[in-house]
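Checked the freezer inventory, then went back to the computational side. Two predictions to log before the end of the day. The first one is the construct we discussed on Monday; recording sequence and tokens without edits.
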Amino acid sequence: MRKGFLTFTAISLLGFSNIALAKQDVCVFDLLGKAGESYKMMEEWALAAKAWSTDVQLIAYQNEELAEKDFKNGKCDAVYLTAMRSRQFNKFAGSIDALGGVPSNAIALKAINFVLDKRNVRRLKSTVDGVEYEVGGIGQIGPAYIFVRDRKINTIEKATGKTFAVLSYDKAQIAAVKRVGATPVLSDISDFVLKFNQGKVDMVGAPAYAFKPLEISKGLGNTGAMFNFPVLNVTADLIFNTTKFSPGFGNLSRDWFLKQMPKQFAMVKKLEETIPNSYRMNLSKEDKERYQKLLRDTRLELTQQGVYDPTMMSVLKRARCTVDRTNFECSLSGE
């Protein structure tokens, strides 16, 4: 009897040991794979997670669509994707990237800090197709700018009839391009800049994160330029299946991400400084306000269509008007 009990105990302990050593697979998208800044940050996160009794195994992806697919199919317990793709899992956090919603890094910092605040835990959980997901962190990738192959396209009006590479799964980009009279050319994150570099499209939008690795200078050549006006702020979200992680994991993970914000924004600043000033095309105050109005109209329309979260739109407006109280929109309703 005693021998049987000891055998049962040994088997049970072995079972618990296997559970303790079980790894959570986390799919990580980065344009540069394991060499990218996002992946390196996630390596630090995985190391920190050991202190939360979580043993993480990272899987690098340079194909974002495949990372999303594998997460949906259960091959990964969590995934790190751009907010444009992760919005389907959590609209609140995914709406930080709304068109014109975050026109500066100062506002981006306010927005991310607010979203990851413990008071928003309920908003960071959502159920999609019977699966409960939670946002475990937000990474700053940086403001996205418009690049043109011909600097004669120096106003939005001159974009009429031109071709613009857009991410096919992002309704916001498609709507914005159509609004200015340009033709959206459906693309993926793996080839949208390539089309620009090869001259297949006249315009493209991208953050500084993509400038050097995707060799945007090839598309700019001697005649191209970058509108020195951010059209949106690009972030990435860590989304996890709550059933695959221990209770309280989300709070620990989000706290860790918040502590990385200074380093994240320093990285963005450093990357933006790699874009030569010769490419930058500065806009007049009047042009900037016209573009802000255009982006606002598109943002309102997309919020009504259910693409963006209305609560987040209100949060972003408060952040913008805290930083710039003289902004024309601060006296307007609608967000």
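The second is the one RB wanted added to the comparison set:
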Amino acid sequence: MRTTRPEAGWAVLLKRPSAASVLLFVIAVVTAVSFAPEFLSRANISSMLGDMLAPAIILLAASLAMTGGVADLSVGSVLGLSAVVYATVYSSSGSWQIGVLAALGVGLLAGLANGSLALIFGVWPLIATLGMLVAARGLAKVISDGSSVAAYTPDLSTVLKTTIGPLPVPILIVLGLALASSAMLRRSRWGNHLRASGGDEVVATRAGIRAPRIQLALFMLTSTAAAVAGCIQVMRTGASAITLGEGTELYVYGALLIAGFRLAGGGHGSPLTAFLSLLSLSIVLNIFRLRGMPLPLGDILLGVTLLGAVSLGWIRERMERRSPEPEPEPEPDAQPQAAVAA
């Protein structure tokens, strides 16, 4: 009987996204403590996690979308456009509720446009959302006239900056949602439908799963999450900067790819491992700031991280294809029967 050799430790690490995410987190924390002792201060941790809130909201929706086979590169631009719309409507109406509704409408329309281009007109999703990335950024500049729009709401800002110890309450809520989403993806019928849609759309359709409808809903969910993130970012800071949201898509999708998701859809990641990967990237960028390094180096880091994450995903796929399937164990009475027959 042929037996399969146990895999090396590095191979197990590469094939298990959760292990890779945990290792990256440990390395990031050890590096931060070693090279930037002020990293552990309450003020720094609270500030870092607060800055992570908007990307984490998008990450949560994007992790579900990628499970279902949808990747949206326009999330950063939709965040910026929604923030400008919220701030503009709020400054003219004096009502933050109306501003939020207007921003959510922008997010829904952006998701509907992305989904229609991809699912109805057959445009490759990455190309469709890349077009939305450029269009939304341009529209935000037109609406804001190329300048920041003030929209300060003291009460909302105070609520969003509420902490338990050094931990902001909103980021704890997002973490709880990530835990709940991870459990639902593994154990619910809804999670099975998402994985089927992301794995093989044709097979899912034959099984009675309406994959196109699910994916359209996922496009709209991701853009709406970006709109919510834009509103929250303005509520926290009091203004919508014209550069708000730039690079967010690299930040989010770099964490998702590290966590085991695939741009083509599916993968073995979960919202929780994606959250941990995003936290690790936030820690690394925080080290850059604490050490006074030039901000462009952070952009270079994100680009290198994205390339490394894509390479890691490719390596994982190659390892899965090459790994031999375990042979079935012989029946317990197979040998005695052979002996009797002899």
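For RB: DSSP finds 16 helices and four strands in the chain. Residues 23-321 form a domain with the ABC transporter involved in vitamin B12 uptake, BtuC fold (CATH 1.10.3470). Let me know if you want it refolded.
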